[in-house]
Amino acid sequence: MKLTKGNHAFVVCTHVDKHHVHNHIIINSTTLDCQKKFRNFWGSAWAIRRMNDKLCLEHGLSIVENPKPSREHYGTWMGNQKQPSRQERLRWAIDAALEEKPKDFEELLKKLEAAGIEVNWERKHLRFRL
């Protein structure tokens, strides 16, 4: 409530299924009246951690004194975990077809179709689908 000043909905999820108890805090990006957006300021994670530590100390709970920084950026970590998107796979197929140096656009489209990409001319713009 202190961080959101009562203007944003939020959920605090406490995990007790690991060897350490920890929280995840999810804050709705829009205010309750849907008029403004939450501004995630630089260092907001540290501000939330300080608020959380103060609250824990007030209630006699332990805190992490010297938290170790994460080993890698969350986006990098997720990149190692998730499957490539359709757009990414389509981009790779187009790049592979272009590396074969087709003589014209028609030959490029034939190479894409041979690679399993559906080429659709029905509408105003050309569309590709894996």
Automatic annotation (TrEMBL):
Residues 2-61 form the MobA/VirD2-like nuclease domain. It comes from the Bacteria. Pfam families: Relaxase. InterPro entries: Endonuclease_MobA/VirD2. This is MobA/VirD2-like nuclease domain-containing protein.
